[in-house]
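Entry for the shared binder. Reason: the reviewer on the internal report wants the predicted structure included alongside the sequence.
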Amino acid sequence: MKRIALLMAFLILFNSCYSYKKLNLGVDDYDVGQNYEVRLGERKMEKVKVVEVTDSTIVVLQNKNRVVIQKSMITESRLRMLSPGKTIIGSVVGVLATLSIFGILFLSGGSSSDGFVTF
């Protein structure tokens, strides 16, 4: 039971919802300091943070390494944006779920002879 309560507490503390806005290649420019998801060729999407932008390349941080990427090699890119609506809804659902679990634990007769709740 203690593990469930700890898991629920972590879910509330680390709740954040991001959504991705698809960018038009060649039209949208990359902003320094922004987080993106990029696909190079047929590889999987990778999360990067843009450090520097030139006409033909972008310098990104990927897993704490600086990588220079040719813009022509990027087949898909999406801007990572915090979604306030999803974050609020996720937080409310997380709090309600945590309160429900704690309520079930406390009301299920999980008390010792001292009157303290045990997990």
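Summary line for the report: DSSP finds two helices and six strands in the chain.
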